[in-house]
Specification:
5 helices, about 0% strand
């Protein structure tokens, strides 16, 4: 079966896996009848997890200079936001630590891969000058420099 380029990325596959695992977790929280108290956190977690997937796909599809950096960086931010939402669910007693462990491991992997992608593109498009020796000028008299430039 043919695939889009972003579907071949391990970070994209992990992100899809996280969204799938999240569906089960949200169902578990709903069964505990805590959905009313935690609806904002669950909504934010759902939106952030989708944002990770979408930003990876869009960033990988961009071919102009630094555009992938922005999307991969946004995806990384959304992944860390997902981790924080899981922590909030744990702190509020909606989930047990063992229920979010696998999700947190996936998120750590996702954030790590996205950080490396951002670094790769930053290095690829970095503009700078070679390191040179800085010190005293070989020209002792500024008037000599003016004469040479005429």
């Amino acid at each position: 079966m043919k695939q889009f380029d972003h579907e071949k990325l391990e970070v994209y596959q992990h992100s899809i896996k996280f969204v799938g695992r999240l569906t089960g977790l949200v169902g578990s929280v709903k069964e505990k009848k805590q959905i009313v108290l935690l609806s904002e956190v669950l909504n934010q977690l759902d939106r952030a997890s989708i944002s990770v997937v979408l930003n990876i796909a869009e960033g990988n599809g961009r071919r102009q200079m630094k555009q992938p950096i922005r999307f991969f960086d946004d995806a990384r931010g959304s992944a860390t936001e997902c981790a924080a939402c899981l922590d909030v669910l744990l702190a509020k007693g909606a989930v047990e630590r063992n229920e979010i462990e696998e999700g947190k491991v996936l998120l750590i992997s996702i954030v790590s891969m996205l950080s490396k992608l951002v670094q790769y593109f930053e290095n690829k498009f970095a503009v700078g000058e070679d390191v040179g020796e800085y010190g005293t000028s070989q020209i002792d008299d500024i008037s000599k420099l003016k004469d040479e430039t005429k």
